[in-house]
Amino acid sequence: MNINLTKLITRLEDKILIDDTINIPKELLTKSDINDISKVKIKGFITSNDNNYELQLNIKCNLVLTCSISLKKVDYKVDIDICEILGENDENLEENNKIINNTIDLIPIIWQNIILEVPLKVVSPDIKRENIYADGWRFITDEKDIKKQNDPRLEGFKKFLSE
């Protein structure tokens, strides 16, 4: 999604409004933990800010992720607000935020911010956690399930605490 910034650069307009729905290329999904992504709704604007430009967007989409316990597919909603600085020859800017030939491609910026929102672990809401166990461990769901067990190796420290 290329945005032409010529009207901002020549000061014909103060703001470029963005209100669009885009598709993220499927080849980007292969390098992430995201199984599928819905169409991405973006809404915001670009304004001139001294020598640079400011991009403010709201990004909304649905991701399909894998449950960490059951490996079922889980829907995860993304609704984020971003603010990015765009420029031409500033070495402090990221490569995605550089303006080339008076245009900026927003898909790498949007994708980068969606990836940052993906949680490390997702658990399906319909999973029954009390039945999850294996050899030597079990999933604890409540503090009442935790029994205080004293480690016999630490019994010698009790005499120091009682003094």
Describe this protein's structure.
It is a single chain. By secondary structure, this protein is an alpha+beta fold. 15% of the residues lie in helices and 36% in strands. The chain has four helices and nine strands; from the N terminus they run βαβαβββββαββα. It has helices spanning 6-9, 26-29, 107-117, 158-162, and strands at 2-4, 15-22, 36-37, 40-49, 52-66, 73-86, 103-105, 133-134, 137-138. Strands 2, 3, 4, 5 and 6 form a five-stranded antiparallel beta sheet that branches. A two-stranded antiparallel sheet has the order 1-7. The chain has a two-stranded antiparallel ribbon with strand order 8-9. A hairpin with a 2-residue loop joins strand 8 and strand 9. The radius of gyration is 25 Å and the shape is elongated.
Total domain count: 1
State the total count of DSSP E strands. Answer: 9
Mean pLDDT: 80
Q: Nearest-angstrom radius of gyration? A: 25 Å
What amount of the residues lies in strands?
35-45%
